[in-house]
Specification:
single chain; about 290 residues; ABC transporter involved in vitamin B12 uptake, BtuC
């Protein structure tokens, strides 16, 4: 039963990593930029929900919607103000811009909300589901269910909607997409909005489970490792990589030496880079011209 309990906890944690990794992958596929501020955007999304729900007193559901919408707009602003002018610049320069943005976001969060850990007043807080000797918190079930619903929605969006198909075309070849009439710059802004909204959902899902403070954005580094493990150009790979990292961390924390859980993600990253650099789902080179 202990193994099953660890597995459930690992799946819940892995879903959070996977959602943040989805943001990495979506932005990279559309713009070939790596956004190292993705974890910090997740942190801001959690704080936005705390502001609407805990401080402003909005009902939980409407507070969540308001936080996700706010972060979608925030993603557009970040892309237009800081990233659009970096188009055509060396990838390392873009990477350093996003690293710098992460520092700014953490400092701003500390100045606005303080550095004391906070949580979201969720209607699921404290509820548990008991199956024999296995105990599952309702918050963990919400994380897993929310991830499944979001992934299903993204699949349908990219598979059947005109906007989703336009995003895929832009990710394959921006110049060709422009020539066939797709508004590439607008699509890129929407991609950043979608990525920020997904990060906000990840933050909202994890806030009732784990306390939120400005440093929680560093979880984005583990999510980046998960994206590499799954295959940096693959949306399913992001979720699978997140699950692998989350489950491995839980088992390493119990059965490994002290502190091994904290380095598990990076160890998996190194192993994957040595064994299969393209990740489990290799799609980076499958671009159509």
């Amino acid at each position: 039963m202990e193994v099953l309990q660890l597995l459930i906890s690992g799946i819940s944690l892995g879903c959070v990593y996977g959602l943040i990794a989805l943001g990495f992958v979506i932005i990279y596929k559309a713009t070939e930029m790596v956004n190292f501020a993705q974890g910090d955007i997740m942190m801001l999304g959690a704080y936005a929900a705390i502001t609407y729900i805990n401080i402003a007193g909005m009902p939980f559901f409407w507070g969540v919607l308001a936080a996700v919408a706010t972060m979608a707009v925030f993603g557009i602003v970040v892309e237009r103000v800081a990233l659009r002018r970096m188009i055509g610049e060396p990838p390392f320069a873009v990477l350093m811009i996003t690293v710098g943005l992460g520092f700014i976001f953490r400092a701003a969060a500390g100045a606005i909300w303080g550095n004391e850990p906070r949580t979201i007043a969720s209607p699921l807080t404290g509820g548990v589901l008991r199956l024999d000797d296995v105990t599952i918190g309702y918050e963990n079930l919400a994380v897993m269910a929310g991830t499944a619903v979001l992934c299903s929605g993204l699949y349908l969006f990219f598979r059947f909607s005109r906007l989703g198909i336009a995003m895929q075309a832009t990710s394959q070849n921006q110049l060709a997409a422009y020539y066939v009439g797709i508004p590439v710059t607008r699509i890129v802004s929407i991609v950043w909005a979608l990525s920020a909204a997904i990060a906000a959902i990840a933050g909202i899902l994890v806030a009732p489970v784990s306390l939120i403070d400005p440093s929680v954005g560093f979880v984005g580094i583990k999510a980046f490792a998960a994206a590499i493990v799954g295959g940096f150009g693959s949306l399913p790979g992001a979720i699978v990589g997140g699950l692998i990292v989350g489950i491995a961390e839980q088992f390493a924390g119990l059965y490994g030496p002290a502190g091994s859980a904290d380095i598990t993600a990076y160890a998996l990253l190194l192993v994957m880079l040595f064994v299969r650099p393209e990740g489990l789902f290799a799609t980076l080179q499958r671009k159509k011209v």
